[in-house]
Protein backbone atom coordinates (compact mmCIF):
# COMPACT_ATOMS: atom_id res chain seq x y z
CA UNK A 1 0.00 0.00 0.00
CA UNK A 2 1.04 3.58 -0.49
CA UNK A 3 2.16 5.79 2.31
CA UNK A 4 -0.53 7.65 4.21
CA UNK A 5 -1.72 10.86 2.64
CA UNK A 6 -0.28 12.89 5.49
CA UNK A 7 3.18 11.52 4.64
CA UNK A 8 2.95 12.26 0.93
CA UNK A 9 4.26 15.71 0.18
CA UNK A 10 2.70 17.55 -2.73
CA UNK A 11 3.85 20.81 -4.29
CA UNK A 12 1.45 23.69 -3.80
CA UNK A 13 0.74 24.46 -7.43
CA UNK A 14 -1.08 22.26 -9.92
CA UNK A 15 -0.86 23.24 -13.54
CA UNK A 16 0.07 22.10 -16.99
CA UNK A 17 2.37 23.74 -19.48
CA UNK A 18 0.66 25.81 -22.14
CA UNK A 19 -0.63 23.95 -25.17
CA UNK A 20 1.76 25.81 -27.45
CA UNK A 21 4.73 24.73 -25.33
CA UNK A 22 3.61 21.11 -25.39
CA UNK A 23 3.10 21.13 -29.17
CA UNK A 24 6.45 22.83 -29.70
CA UNK A 25 8.26 20.30 -27.50
CA UNK A 26 6.85 17.41 -29.51
CA UNK A 27 7.86 18.84 -32.88
CA UNK A 28 11.27 20.06 -31.71
CA UNK A 29 12.10 16.72 -30.10
CA UNK A 30 11.27 14.88 -33.32
CA UNK A 31 13.34 17.26 -35.42
CA UNK A 32 16.23 16.88 -32.99
CA UNK A 33 16.03 13.10 -33.20
CA UNK A 34 15.98 13.19 -37.00
CA UNK A 35 18.94 15.58 -37.05
CA UNK A 36 20.84 13.22 -34.75
CA UNK A 37 20.18 10.27 -37.06
CA UNK A 38 21.32 12.25 -40.10
CA UNK A 39 24.48 13.36 -38.30
CA UNK A 40 25.18 9.71 -37.45
CA UNK A 41 24.94 8.74 -41.10
CA UNK A 42 21.38 7.40 -41.12
CA UNK A 43 19.34 9.39 -43.67
CA UNK A 44 15.74 10.26 -42.85
CA UNK A 45 13.30 10.96 -45.66
CA UNK A 46 11.58 14.35 -45.89
CA UNK A 47 8.13 12.79 -45.45
CA UNK A 48 9.21 11.17 -42.18
CA UNK A 49 10.74 14.43 -40.97
CA UNK A 50 7.77 16.66 -41.74
CA UNK A 51 4.93 14.22 -41.06
CA UNK A 52 6.67 12.99 -37.91
CA UNK A 53 7.05 16.52 -36.58
CA UNK A 54 3.36 17.18 -37.24
CA UNK A 55 2.28 13.97 -35.52
CA UNK A 56 4.56 14.61 -32.54
CA UNK A 57 3.21 18.14 -32.22
CA UNK A 58 -0.42 17.06 -32.23
CA UNK A 59 -0.02 14.06 -29.95
CA UNK A 60 1.86 16.23 -27.46
CA UNK A 61 -1.58 17.63 -26.58
CA UNK A 62 -3.28 14.25 -26.14
CA UNK A 63 -2.46 13.47 -22.46
CA UNK A 64 -4.50 16.45 -21.27
CA UNK A 65 -7.65 14.74 -22.49
CA UNK A 66 -7.96 13.93 -18.77
CA UNK A 67 -8.53 17.63 -18.00
CA UNK A 68 -11.94 19.10 -19.03
CA UNK A 69 -10.42 22.59 -19.29
CA UNK A 70 -7.54 21.68 -21.60
CA UNK A 71 -7.07 22.63 -25.25
CA UNK A 72 -7.77 19.13 -26.50
CA UNK A 73 -11.00 18.91 -24.49
CA UNK A 74 -12.38 22.00 -26.26
CA UNK A 75 -11.70 20.90 -29.83
CA UNK A 76 -15.26 19.70 -30.54
CA UNK A 77 -17.11 21.62 -27.86
CA UNK A 78 -19.52 19.53 -25.77
CA UNK A 79 -18.48 16.29 -27.50
CA UNK A 80 -14.83 16.44 -26.48
CA UNK A 81 -15.72 17.94 -23.09
CA UNK A 82 -17.88 14.88 -22.42
CA UNK A 83 -15.05 12.59 -23.52
CA UNK A 84 -12.63 14.52 -21.34
CA UNK A 85 -14.86 14.30 -18.27
CA UNK A 86 -15.31 10.58 -18.86
CA UNK A 87 -11.55 10.03 -19.16
CA UNK A 88 -10.93 12.16 -16.07
CA UNK A 89 -13.53 10.25 -14.03
CA UNK A 90 -12.21 6.88 -15.22
CA UNK A 91 -8.59 7.87 -14.53
CA UNK A 92 -9.52 9.17 -11.09
CA UNK A 93 -11.38 5.97 -10.23
CA UNK A 94 -8.50 3.86 -11.51
CA UNK A 95 -6.00 5.91 -9.53
CA UNK A 96 -8.00 5.55 -6.34
CA UNK A 97 -8.50 1.81 -6.87
CA UNK A 98 -4.79 1.19 -7.39
CA UNK A 99 -3.48 3.55 -4.70
CA UNK A 100 -6.11 4.37 -2.10
CA UNK A 101 -3.77 6.39 0.12
CA UNK A 102 -2.46 8.77 -2.52
CA UNK A 103 -3.12 12.41 -1.72
CA UNK A 104 -5.14 14.17 -4.45
CA UNK A 105 -6.08 17.83 -4.43
CA UNK A 106 -9.85 18.56 -4.26
CA UNK A 107 -11.32 18.90 -7.73
CA UNK A 108 -8.28 17.41 -9.45
CA UNK A 109 -10.16 14.33 -10.59
CA UNK A 110 -8.09 12.10 -12.83
CA UNK A 111 -5.79 14.81 -14.18
CA UNK A 112 -2.14 13.81 -14.34
CA UNK A 113 -2.66 10.16 -13.69
CA UNK A 114 -2.60 7.34 -16.26
CA UNK A 115 -2.35 9.56 -19.37
CA UNK A 116 0.80 11.17 -17.98
CA UNK A 117 2.82 7.97 -17.62
CA UNK A 118 5.46 6.16 -19.66
CA UNK A 119 3.21 3.08 -20.08
CA UNK A 120 0.50 5.25 -21.66
CA UNK A 121 3.02 6.70 -24.13
CA UNK A 122 4.23 3.18 -24.95
CA UNK A 123 0.64 2.08 -25.56
CA UNK A 124 0.09 5.00 -27.96
CA UNK A 125 3.33 4.07 -29.74
CA UNK A 126 2.35 0.41 -30.04
CA UNK A 127 -1.15 1.10 -31.39
CA UNK A 128 -0.01 3.69 -33.93
CA UNK A 129 3.04 1.65 -35.00
CA UNK A 130 0.92 -1.46 -35.49
CA UNK A 131 -1.63 0.50 -37.50
CA UNK A 132 1.11 1.97 -39.69
CA UNK A 133 2.73 -1.42 -40.15
CA UNK A 134 -0.43 -3.34 -41.00
CA UNK A 135 -2.51 -0.78 -42.90
CA UNK A 136 0.29 1.42 -44.21
CA UNK A 137 -0.23 4.88 -45.59
CA UNK A 138 -4.04 4.81 -45.48
CA UNK A 139 -4.22 4.57 -41.70
CA UNK A 140 -1.12 6.68 -41.20
CA UNK A 141 -2.56 9.69 -43.02
CA UNK A 142 -5.57 9.47 -40.72
CA UNK A 143 -3.16 9.69 -37.78
CA UNK A 144 -1.43 12.64 -39.45
CA UNK A 145 -4.77 14.36 -40.02
CA UNK A 146 -5.82 13.76 -36.41
CA UNK A 147 -2.54 15.28 -35.21
CA UNK A 148 -2.96 18.33 -37.45
CA UNK A 149 -6.50 18.77 -36.20
CA UNK A 150 -5.24 18.81 -32.62
CA UNK A 151 -2.25 21.04 -33.35
CA UNK A 152 -4.26 23.72 -35.15
CA UNK A 153 -6.23 24.39 -31.99
CA UNK A 154 -3.11 25.64 -30.26
CA UNK A 155 -1.08 26.87 -33.25
CA UNK A 156 -3.85 28.97 -34.82
CA UNK A 157 -6.25 31.41 -33.21
CA UNK A 158 -9.97 30.74 -33.70
CA UNK A 159 -10.28 33.75 -36.02
CA UNK A 160 -7.43 32.44 -38.15
CA UNK A 161 -9.10 29.03 -38.45
CA UNK A 162 -12.38 30.73 -39.32
CA UNK A 163 -10.62 32.65 -42.09
CA UNK A 164 -9.87 29.33 -43.79
CA UNK A 165 -13.59 28.77 -44.29
CA UNK A 166 -14.18 32.41 -45.15
CA UNK A 167 -11.62 32.07 -47.93
CA UNK A 168 -13.43 29.02 -49.32
CA UNK A 169 -16.92 30.55 -49.13
CA UNK A 170 -16.38 34.33 -49.06
CA UNK A 171 -18.92 36.41 -47.19
CA UNK A 172 -20.75 33.48 -45.63
CA UNK A 173 -19.04 33.50 -42.22
CA UNK A 174 -20.88 36.24 -40.35
CA UNK A 175 -21.60 36.64 -36.69
CA UNK A 176 -20.00 35.24 -33.56
CA UNK A 177 -21.74 31.87 -33.70
CA UNK A 178 -20.93 31.39 -37.39
CA UNK A 179 -17.26 32.16 -36.79
CA UNK A 180 -17.20 29.71 -33.89
CA UNK A 181 -18.41 26.87 -36.10
CA UNK A 182 -16.19 28.05 -38.95
CA UNK A 183 -13.16 27.86 -36.65
CA UNK A 184 -13.96 24.23 -35.83
CA UNK A 185 -14.50 23.43 -39.49
CA UNK A 186 -11.30 25.26 -40.42
CA UNK A 187 -9.29 22.83 -38.28
CA UNK A 188 -10.89 19.89 -40.06
CA UNK A 189 -10.15 21.40 -43.47
CA UNK A 190 -6.51 22.03 -42.53
CA UNK A 191 -6.21 18.46 -41.26
CA UNK A 192 -7.70 17.03 -44.45
CA UNK A 193 -5.44 19.13 -46.70
CA UNK A 194 -2.25 18.11 -44.88
CA UNK A 195 -3.28 14.45 -44.70
CA UNK A 196 -4.04 14.33 -48.43
CA UNK A 197 -0.76 16.10 -49.22
CA UNK A 198 1.16 13.51 -47.21
CA UNK A 199 -0.67 10.73 -49.01
CA UNK A 200 0.26 12.20 -52.39
CA UNK A 201 3.99 12.38 -51.65
CA UNK A 202 4.20 9.12 -49.69
CA UNK A 203 6.19 6.31 -51.27
CA UNK A 204 3.84 3.50 -52.39
CA UNK A 205 4.22 0.33 -50.35
CA UNK A 206 6.48 1.94 -47.74
CA UNK A 207 6.10 0.88 -44.13
CA UNK A 208 4.70 3.55 -41.85
CA UNK A 209 5.46 1.89 -38.52
CA UNK A 210 7.56 4.93 -37.59
CA UNK A 211 4.42 7.02 -37.21
CA UNK A 212 4.07 5.20 -33.90
CA UNK A 213 7.42 6.61 -32.80
CA UNK A 214 6.17 10.12 -33.53
CA UNK A 215 2.85 9.58 -31.74
CA UNK A 216 4.51 7.91 -28.77
CA UNK A 217 7.21 10.55 -28.52
CA UNK A 218 4.70 13.40 -28.65
CA UNK A 219 2.68 11.78 -25.87
CA UNK A 220 5.79 11.27 -23.75
CA UNK A 221 7.06 14.80 -24.47
CA UNK A 222 3.91 16.19 -22.85
CA UNK A 223 4.52 14.31 -19.60
CA UNK A 224 8.22 15.17 -19.61
CA UNK A 225 7.28 18.82 -20.02
CA UNK A 226 4.85 18.68 -17.11
CA UNK A 227 7.63 17.15 -15.03
CA UNK A 228 9.45 20.45 -15.33
CA UNK A 229 6.61 22.24 -13.54
CA UNK A 230 5.93 22.35 -9.80
CA UNK A 231 3.49 19.45 -9.78
CA UNK A 232 5.51 16.89 -11.78
CA UNK A 233 4.09 13.76 -13.43
CA UNK A 234 3.71 10.12 -12.31
CA UNK A 235 5.95 9.03 -15.17
CA UNK A 236 7.05 5.70 -13.75
CA UNK A 237 3.71 4.25 -12.67
CA UNK A 238 3.23 1.44 -11.61
CA UNK A 239 6.68 1.45 -9.97
CA UNK A 240 6.60 2.36 -6.29
CA UNK A 241 8.58 5.47 -5.44
CA UNK A 242 8.85 6.14 -1.73
CA UNK A 243 5.92 3.81 -1.17
CA UNK A 244 3.55 5.32 -3.76
CA UNK A 245 2.70 4.04 -7.25
CA UNK A 246 1.46 7.46 -8.40
CA UNK A 247 4.37 9.43 -7.00
CA UNK A 248 5.05 12.44 -9.21
CA UNK A 249 8.62 12.91 -10.37
CA UNK A 250 10.49 15.66 -12.11
CA UNK A 251 13.55 17.82 -12.11
CA UNK A 252 15.01 19.05 -8.79
CA UNK A 253 12.49 21.38 -7.18
CA UNK A 254 14.71 24.43 -7.53
CA UNK A 255 14.67 23.90 -11.31
CA UNK A 256 10.88 23.64 -11.64
CA UNK A 257 8.73 26.55 -12.78
CA UNK A 258 5.13 27.66 -12.64
CA UNK A 259 3.05 26.42 -15.56
CA UNK A 260 2.23 29.27 -17.93
CA UNK A 261 4.50 31.65 -16.03
CA UNK A 262 7.29 33.95 -17.14
CA UNK A 263 9.95 31.21 -17.10
CA UNK A 264 7.96 29.07 -19.50
CA UNK A 265 7.01 31.96 -21.77
CA UNK A 266 10.34 33.77 -21.93
CA UNK A 267 12.94 31.09 -21.31
CA UNK A 268 11.71 27.54 -21.92
CA UNK A 269 9.64 28.15 -25.08
CA UNK A 270 12.29 30.35 -26.80
CA UNK A 271 15.00 27.80 -25.92
CA UNK A 272 12.95 25.03 -27.54
CA UNK A 273 12.41 27.24 -30.58
CA UNK A 274 16.14 27.85 -30.97
CA UNK A 275 16.83 24.14 -30.61
CA UNK A 276 14.25 23.42 -33.29
CA UNK A 277 15.82 25.94 -35.66
CA UNK A 278 19.22 24.35 -35.09
CA UNK A 279 17.84 20.90 -35.83
CA UNK A 280 16.09 22.19 -38.96
CA UNK A 281 19.37 23.71 -40.15
CA UNK A 282 21.19 20.39 -39.73
CA UNK A 283 18.43 18.63 -41.67
CA UNK A 284 18.33 21.20 -44.47
CA UNK A 285 22.10 21.62 -44.88
CA UNK A 286 22.63 18.38 -46.88
CA UNK A 287 19.68 19.24 -49.12
CA UNK A 288 21.05 22.73 -49.72
CA UNK A 289 24.50 21.40 -50.59
CA UNK A 290 23.03 18.87 -53.01
CA UNK A 291 20.50 21.02 -54.83
CA UNK A 292 21.78 24.55 -54.36
CA UNK A 293 25.48 23.93 -54.71
From TrEMBL:
Transmembrane segments: 113-131, 137-156, 181-202, 208-225, 266-288
Pfam families cross-referenced by the UniProt entry: YdjM
Keywords, ordered alphabetically: Hydrolase, Membrane, Transmembrane, Transmembrane helix
Listed GO MF terms: hydrolase activity
Domain of life: Bacteria
Protein name per the record: LexA-binding, inner membrane-associated putative hydrolase
Source organism of this protein record: Asanoa ferruginea
Origin organism lineage: Bacteria, Bacillati, Actinomycetota, Actinomycetes, Micromonosporales
Entry keyword Hydrolase: yes
UniProt xrefs under InterPro entries: YdjM-like
